[in-house]
What we know:
- With 519 residues, the chain is of the alpha+beta class.
- The chain has helices at residues 86-99, 127-139, 167-170, 198-225, 241-259, 266-281, 286-315, 401-415, 439-453, 486-491, and strands spanning 4-9, 15-20, 29-35, 38-46, 59-65, 111-119, 150-157, 160-163, 175-181, 186-193, 330-334, 342-348, 351-360, 366-369, 374-377, 379-384, 425-434, 463-472, 477-482, 494-500, 505-510.
- The chain folds into three domains: 4-225, Ribosomal Protein S5, domain 2 (2-Layer Sandwich), CATH 3.30.230; 241-315; 330-510, GHMP Kinase, N-terminal domain (Ribosomal Protein S5, domain 2).
- α1 packs across α8, α5 packs antiparallel against α6 (266-281) and α8 (401-415) crosses α9 (439-453).
- The longest helix has 30 residues, at 286-315.
- Mean pLDDT is 93; it is low at 511-519.
Amino acid sequence: MNVVTKTITLADGREISIETGKLAKQADGAVMVRMGNTMLLATVCSAQDAVPGTDFMPLTVEYKEKFASAGRFPGGFTRREGKASDYEILTARLVDRALRPLFPDDYHADTFVNVTLYSADGVDMPDALAGLAASAAIAVSDIPFNGPISEVRVARIDGEFVVNPTFEQLEKADLDIMVAATLDNIMMVEGEMNEVSEADLLNAIRTAHEAIKPHCQAQLELMEAVGKTVKREYCHEENDEELRKDVREKTYAKTYELAKSCNTDKHSRGENFKAVREEYKATFSEEELEEKAALIDRYYHDVEKEAMRRAILDEGIRLDGRKTTEIRPIWSEVGYLPGPHGSSIFTRGETQSLCSVTLGTKQDEKIIDESLIQGKERFLLHYNFPPFSTGEARAQRGVGRREIGHGNLACRALKRMIPDNYPYVVRVVSDILESNGSSSMASVCAGTLALMDAGVQIKKPVSGIAMGLISENKGTNYAVLSDILGDEDHLGDMDFKVTGTKRRYHCYPNGYQGRWSFL
């Protein structure tokens, strides 16, 4: 048994160890990460071949906490761990967002990352170690990956930044963010804070990045020690370079003109781009299309992406005709629903939230009974994203992970604005009726209006907006976009959702999948 261990010493003297070669050896990669008596096992398995026709990265990240890790029994009749809690889902999403952009664009094999908490001391917070564990498992495997990465939590306590604070320390923090990064670039930021300045926030992110660099270096050393510096060979895409060139030559000019046409309607734009693609396809026979249709779709997607980016960078024209600093028209209304205690409609462009507020008593508190966290919640925000909001013809089957994640973003922004010692339990429900752009940020705006309509004397109104970035030449040529569209999110380099009061930033709730270098 060849066991290899690397140790990272934090600034405060605490140590993190990464061990591989002892457990779960049939997985492609497995590590045990330990800090104090908190231990997480991370494993990764990736199929050797991609499912035919797959043109994306089918990555699944799971985070689970065993109740036995803290010497507790699970609740319920079965006394067994059940479905993932909201906390576990949110932790898994943090890891997913940091890992996903770093797999090669042409790697399409089913990949599963599992991070499990097996031991907890109740002192150190395990979610801050999940990203490091997941990345280290990939590092000791032969799976292609442009990492490594790590994640840390940074909290500001009594004016000082603390990396990976304990549960007790975090209770005193006025800033709490999770940051993921490679050696060179920030990948993801998520967190909440009590109205901080831009300078303070940037300093917190820089502090996190400096703490992450030794984590990444330790993983590189671990990778070399286990002989996994050379990754597996794969071929998940069959390309036709002549066809790629032909698609671009015959569709780019028309697509570029459409990108500059300032069409404000999402579905009309989509149909216009589709018409160019279908016109090109019509030049082929049915037999040829059986072989080439999927490739044409993929190559035209690249054309559409390039045309949109060039229109923004060269002409300063966005798909709907706005300038980079302009936001879409906004209209709102309060008291629309007579039944709830408070209600509102908030519409920004083609994104619309119908929000309701219900006030309750102590009996309505949400009970939290997790492996490490027990207590009650008095402010709840639930977010629903039905398929009709984007014109999709499909059934709605329960609450998905995306809805839990985006609801949490809005909850982070609003919960600190509830008055101290407020006697009522508050439930905010945001139903997204239209979506083209950030519906979580629309939920923040609608939630503020509905809370005021319900008579809740919030400390200050909060608003949210999604920012984007189109960049090239290592950031020397770029455009920052205000209030991004869905297409700008999909085809751009950054999705960075920001909430705040009139005075200062209140929350940076959602990091982006991209790279960000501090200059």
